[in-house]
UniProtKB/TrEMBL annotation:
<dbReference type="GO" id="GO:0016787">
    <property type="term" value="F:hydrolase activity"/>
</dbReference>
<dbReference type="InterPro" id="IPR031327">
    <property type="entry name" value="MCM"/>
</dbReference>
<dbReference type="InterPro" id="IPR027925">
    <property type="entry name" value="MCM_N"/>
</dbReference>
<comment type="similarity">
    <text>Belongs to the MCM family.</text>
</comment>
<keyword id="KW-0238">DNA-binding</keyword>
<dbReference type="InterPro" id="IPR033762">
    <property type="entry name" value="MCM_OB"/>
</dbReference>
<dbReference type="Pfam" id="PF14551">
    <property type="entry name" value="MCM_N"/>
</dbReference>
<dbReference type="InterPro" id="IPR012340">
    <property type="entry name" value="NA-bd_OB-fold"/>
</dbReference>
<dbReference type="GO" id="GO:0005524">
    <property type="term" value="F:ATP binding"/>
</dbReference>
<dbReference type="GO" id="GO:0003697">
    <property type="term" value="F:single-stranded DNA binding"/>
</dbReference>
<dbReference type="InterPro" id="IPR036388">
    <property type="entry name" value="WH-like_DNA-bd_sf"/>
</dbReference>
<keyword id="KW-0347">Helicase</keyword>
<keyword id="KW-0378">Hydrolase</keyword>
<dbReference type="GO" id="GO:0017116">
    <property type="term" value="F:single-stranded DNA helicase activity"/>
</dbReference>
<dbReference type="GO" id="GO:0042555">
    <property type="term" value="C:MCM complex"/>
</dbReference>
<dbReference type="InterPro" id="IPR041562">
    <property type="entry name" value="MCM_lid"/>
</dbReference>
<protein>
    <recommendedName>
        <fullName>DNA helicase</fullName>
        <ecNumber>3.6.4.12</ecNumber>
    </recommendedName>
</protein>
Length: 690
């Protein structure tokens, strides 16, 4: 039966792959594999294709025998050549893999989360029998190391037929191949809210090792294998683990491939495009169940559509992705907004700075069971969200090591790892939408953001837009929010009983989330807007005006060139929202308003009313800095006069007042300096320098 099968494969190769086999034989052993399209096998012989799916171990063995012996080759035999079958008709979600798939040929798609180092693996293990010194060869397959059972079994030489612990493994004589373990997980966009992604481990060998990096989207065709888990003491568990023996790897290239846009969809999209209110319609279709926050929703919309990434002639690249940060009091729907954005994004991922895996937001080299305790490279949220949107809640709670890696991840959109011999650069081309709660519970307009949310000013300056939200009681607004929330809940209660209500209408988006996702994907795929001269002029004017506000004032340089780049990106996104190939003057005006709004929220020195990006850039404004310095000097002076290491706080306030700092301001500053450890209070009413 096997021979017949080999002949059948010979025939197939001759008919469909004659040229390729000949080519391979020339390049062999630098190249070792022949890629075979499954559809060709199906066309050649549907029953052979069926057999391959059902019984892949044997059938593939026969196919490779045929290739190795093939009389088509001109360069002689190819004893280690492989057939790598690709393009299986059906892709199986990781979630639906079951026992019935064990030992079947399946295709699985997923996002690479972790890769272990490529390591040598014994292919043919040599054992010396200690009794008769015959060398036994055992072919290794799967994950368990096999020893000879009886001497002479499967060996040309006549063995002594003894068994037991009489074999010595000949490490140096054995034959090795490259092997690598990979872990893939489900696409985040296919998960329903809050679901943990399921993972699958893949074992690849020889020329398909070292092909993928964390963050890659791939299809792996392979044979599902199972093995019995053992505890450390060797006790066997009744539960079987599964892994996929990789036969071939294909790359998922198109970024919005997953989202199919039909002819009908395209018609609807074009209808929307001609709507004069499209801009507002899109904004109002984002999280309609959340009341207010039009400015943040507008920023989210711009982020979803994204600017245009540019490749520079010198090999550099300017990101098109827009980064946004929302800082604010607890309980004002920040998390809800983030969840919504991640769901709307054609490729979105929602995660919390607090609860992310060991890989955190960027990436890490970890020792884990995937690599059998060896180092593996694991992707964090921003790598997994490559070419999409990463919504990171409580971003201020992120790991310290992420803080520094995030600079690179946001600006260069790469994540470099150099640790434990692993040197890699992963891609993180995603837009970041972060939310942060202020450290002291409530947001304080008089304190710089960087002090309130443990993020460095340089990191903050990477965000194109920053919004701050305070939860101030306001009767009119509170009433509206209350009505809105109560209506949503009321409608939800009725729905639970199976009744539709009119209240629900308030939450119905003008554009359905489904259509909006497609609209976004369509725009990002097809629309690459260019700035008109008028728009450029507007941006230039705005930028120069902003800069000039700093000249002569006490803020050294209020706005940096980063803001100009942000304007361009946002302008492009604005044009994309209308599916327009041009960034018009009107787009520019809109964007300038958005940027001004954001700058005002974070950049205005509330004491002078001036725009002061220095506030973000160095974490404190000039006036504040000066005052803090004066107060420090006063304390230093008083301590000298009094002797010891502290002085009465009342005297500090008195002197401050005579230096022109009113008491309330002075109290605030002292409080701040106590908080950051510049001062300490040895006992009530006293202040000291540590
Ligand atoms: P945060 O992350 O800012 O602490 P959440 O997103 O967890 O807050 O919101 C708390 C709850 O309050 C949510 O159920 C949210 O829907 C509701 N909520 C707060 N503000 C609004 C609003 N403006 N409109 C609708 N719901 C709101
Ligand atoms: Mg929250």
């Amino acid at each position: 039966m096997e021979d017949a099968s080999i002949d059948r494969w010979m025939e197939f190769l001759r008919k469909y792959y004659e040229e390729d086999v000949r080519r391979l034989s020339v390049y062999y052993p630098d190249e070792m594999s022949l890629n075979v399209n499954f559809q060709d096998i199906e066309r050649f012989d549907p029953s052979l294709a069926y057999e391959l799916i059902e019984n892949p171990t044997e059938i593939l063995h026969a196919a490779e025998e045929a290739l190795r012996k093939s009389d088509l080759s001109t360069g002689g035999e190819m004893p280690d050549a492989h057939i790598r079958v690709t393009k299986l008709p059906k892709k199986l979600p990781i979630r639906s893999i079951r026992g019935q798939h064990i030992n079947k040929f399946i295709a699985v798609e997923g996002l690479v989360r972790t890769v272990a180092d490529v390591r040598p693996k014994v292919r043919v293990a040599h054992f010396e029998c200690m009794k008769c010194h015959v060398v036994n060869k055992v072919i290794q397959q799967g994950l368990i190391f096999r020893e000879p059972r009886t001497c002479g079994e499967g060996t040309e030489d006549e063995g002594c037929k003894s068994s037991g612990k009489i074999f010595r493994f000949l490490k140096d004589k054995s034959a090795y191949i490259d092997a690598q373990r990979i872990r893939i997980q489900e696409y985040p966009e296919n998960l329903r809210g809050g679901e943990q992604p399921q993972t699958l481990d893949i074992e690849v060998e020889e020329d398909i090792t070292g092909m993928v990096m964390p963050g890659d989207r791939i299809i792996i065709n392979g044979i599902l294998r199972s093995y019995q888990r053992r505890s450390k003491t060797g006790v066997r568990s009744p539960v079987f683990e599964i892994y996929l023996e990789g036969i071939s790897i294909e790359r998922e290239e198109q970024e919005f491939d997953e989202l199919k846009i039909t002819k009908e969809d395209e018609e609807e999209i074009n209808k929307l495009k001609n709507d004069p209110d499209i801009y507002d319609k899109i904004i109002s279709s984002i999280a309609p169940s959340i009341f207010g926050y039009e400015n943040i929703k507008e920023a989210m919309a711009l982020q979803l559509f994204s600017g245009v990434a540019k490749d520079l002639p010198d090999g550099g690249r300017i990101r098109g992705d827009i980064h946004t940060l929302v800082v604010g009091d607890p309980g004002i729907a920040k998390s809800q907004l983030l969840r919504y954005a991640a769901k709307l994004a054609p490729r979105g991922i929602y995660t919390s700075g607090k609860s992310t895996t060991s890989a955190g937001l960027t990436a890490t080299a970890v020792r884990d069971e995937l690599g059998d305790g060896k180092w593996t490279l694991e992707a964090g949220a921003l790598v997994l969200a490559d070419k999409g949107l990463a919504a990171v809640d409580e971003i201020d709670k992120m790991d310290k090591k992420d803080q520094s890696a995030l600079h690179e991840a946001m600006e260069q959109q790469t994540v470099s790892v150099a640790k434990a011999g692993i040197i890699a650069t992963l891609k993180s081309r995603c837009a970041l939408l972060g939310a942060a709660n202020p450290k002291y519970g409530r947001f304080d307009r008089y304190e710089p953001i960087s002090v309130q949310i443990e993020m460095s000013p340089t990191l903050l300056s990477r965000f194109d837009l920053i919004f701050t939200l305070t939860d101030d009681p306001d009767e009119v607004l509170d009433t509206k929010i209350a009505e809105h929330i109560l209506k949503s809940h009321h409608a939800g209660e009725l729905k639970a009983r199976g009744v539709d209500s009119e209240d629900d209408l308030a939450n119905v988006p003008q554009i359905s989330p489904d259509l909006l996702r497609k609209y976004i994907a369509y725009a990002r795929r097809n629309i690459f807007p260019v700035m008109t001269t008028e728009a450029q002029e507007k941006f230039k004017q705005f930028y120069v005006d902003l800069r000039s506000q700093g000249i002569g004032s006490d803020a050294p340089v209020p706005v940096t060139a980063r803001q100009l780049e942000a304007l361009v990106r946002l302008g492009e996104a604005c044009a994309r929202m209308r599916l327009s190939e041009e960034v018009t003057e009107e787009d520019a005006s809109r964007i300038i308003k958005v940027v001004k709004d954001s700058l005002l929220q974070v950049g205005v020195d509330p004491e002078t009313g001036r725009l002061d990006a220095d506030w973000i850039a160095v974490g404190t404004t000039k006036t504040r800095r000066d005052r803090a310095k004066i107060i420090r000097d006063i304390v230093r002076g008083l301590i000298k006069e009094h002797g010891g290491d502290a002085c009465p706080i009342e005297e500090v306030y008195e002197r401050a007042e005579s230096s022109g700092i009113e008491r309330q301001r002075a109290e605030e500053i002292v409080e701040g300096l106590l908080r950051d450890g510049t001062f300490f209070s040895p006992k009530h009413g006293m202040i000291g320098l540590p």
